[in-house]
Write a structure and sequence with these properties.
The protein contains 15 helices and 12 strands. Helix content is 44%, strand content 17%. It is found in: Cytoplasm.
Length: 438
């Protein structure tokens, strides 16, 4: 099947010094030649005048790079046009490309073609999508490792072992009367049990990779005027929340995005926990409790100059951090709800450096970059859970044929992660995350 020639802006939208237009497809050579007056040498940046093939009007003076397939990102003939970044230049060249026979690409279509042409597996494609979206250093490192094949190598090894186990099981079925090595069936059982244990250990990662990819949610809870909004502003380094001595100022959840030790964190300031004075404040308190229930980390804030309030005390057992604020007014209590609090003063800044260190440690423990390849998506977890379930079936399967079918099902489940089998149902979801030019 001959794929259409596609193009897309691979650099950011808006006015810039340089804009990058990427092309791919069997007709790329003809399209580039029509605009540039011929093809440049492969993989060598060449300065060319780009003209509209219909009118010969000069559109831009640009660098043109030509990448003959299959040695290209997509595995097809590809090219890049490095244009001046004015919107009129981009629009004029795009119109000329359409007139020359190309069409605008769909989101993720370049990487989808790379996958279909065997240039990468599905986990690597997802790693590239994560790399494009990475906000922090740790996210970038995790995405790079996945894009370079860390997960593919791990799952590929498991696939090879499953294939070998299935081959042995099939041999036991098909050639039972032949002179086969003794203990072949037992070897399959032992091998599948070992593999199941490895998958179980891989799954027992507390969702670190997924949390790093998506980011953590941290909720700040406390009574009115405990200093929650001031704490949010201090950690954010800006006036994100309104601070007032009047109780009940914060009615809705106020959120800011932070980078803690390379982990993206959404920090949420919530309404003060108390008996609400009206239905609006009651809704704010309800939302505060709901946000705390959803959070990966809860910060319970108490005022050092006041007796601990019961509403916040109820959350101490759930809180990873218990803070005694307003050290400028009173010393921190030795314990709050049986927990030794971290003393701080948002007003003077006392204890804030220690708090930032502690928050970074907590974020790293929940979502820091692990030394080994980690799961990054729910679909990975679901497929591996299914595979482990099928391998567990071997313990109770009474017939060799049933054991072989369980091995085949486990193989299919792992294959869906890398895209070797049954990928059509997940392709649109995976590649729909990409920007157009990727």
């Amino acid at each position: 099947m001959v794929e259409a020639t596609i193009f897309a802006l691979a650099s950011g939208a808006g006015r810039a010094a340089v804009a990058l237009l990427r092309l791919s497809g069997s007709g790329t050579a003809g399209v580039v030649a029509a605009l540039a007056g011929g093809l440049p040498p492969p993989r060598r940046a060449s300065l060319r005048r780009l003209r509209d093939p219909r009118t010969a009007e000069l559109l831009d003076q640009a660098l043109v790079l030509w990448f003959p397939g299959p040695a290209s990102y997509t595995g097809e003939d590809s090219a890049e046009l490095h244009l001046h970044g004015g919107p009129a230049v981009i629009a004029g060249v795009a119109e000329a490309l359409v007139s020359a026979g190309a069409r605008p690409a769909e989101p993720g279509e370049f990487t989808r073609r790379a996958f279909l042409n065997g240039r990468m597996d599905l986990t690597a494609a997802e790693g590239i999508a994560d790399l494009v979206a990475a906000e922090t250093v740790a996210q970038r490192r995790q995405a790079l490792r996945q894009a370079e094949g860390a997960l593919a190598t791990l799952y590929g090894g498991w696939t090879a072992r499953l294939t070998a186990l299935l081959a042995r099981q099939e041999a036991f079925i098909e050639f039972e009367d032949e002179d086969l090595p003794t203990g072949l069936d037992d070897a399959v059982a032992l091998g599948s049990a070992a593999l199941r244990a490895e998958i179980a250990a891989h799954l027992a990662d507390a969702g670190r990779g997924e949390r790093l990819r998506e980011g953590l949610l941290v909720a700040i809870l406390g009574a009115p005027n405990a200093g929650k909004s001031s704490l949010l502003n201090a950690l954010a380094g800006r006036e994100a929340a309104i601070v007032s001595a009047r109780a009940g100022t914060t009615r809705d959840v106020v959120e800011v995005r932070l980078d803690l030790a390379g982990v993206p964190v959404t920090l949420a300031d919530t309404a003060g926990l108390r008996e609400a004075a009206d239905e609006i404040e009651a809704e704010g308190v309800r939302r505060a409790c709901r946000r705390a229930e959803e959070a990966d980390l809860v910060i319970a804030v108490f005022a050092a100059d006041q007796a601990p309030d019961g509403a916040t005390l109820a959350w101490v057992t759930h809180a990873a951090l218990v803070l005694a604020n307003k050290l400028d007014l009173a010393p921190a209590p030795t314990a709050i709800g049986g927990v030794v609090p971290l003393g701080i003063s948002v007003r003077t800044g006392a204890g804030l450096d220690a708090l930032r260190i502690r928050l970074a440690e907590e974020a790293g423990a929940r979502a820091g970059l692990a030394a080994e390849a980690t799961l990054t998506r729910p679909r990975h977890r679901a497929a591996l859970t299914e595979a482990a379930g099928w391998l567990a079936e071997l313990d109770t399967a009474s017939l060799p044929e049933l054991r072989a079918e369980a091995l085949r099902a486990a193989l299919r489940a792992i294959g869906r992660i890398t895209g070797r089998v049954g990928v059509e149902a997940v392709l649109d979801a995976v590649f729909g995350e990409f920007c157009i030019g990727k």
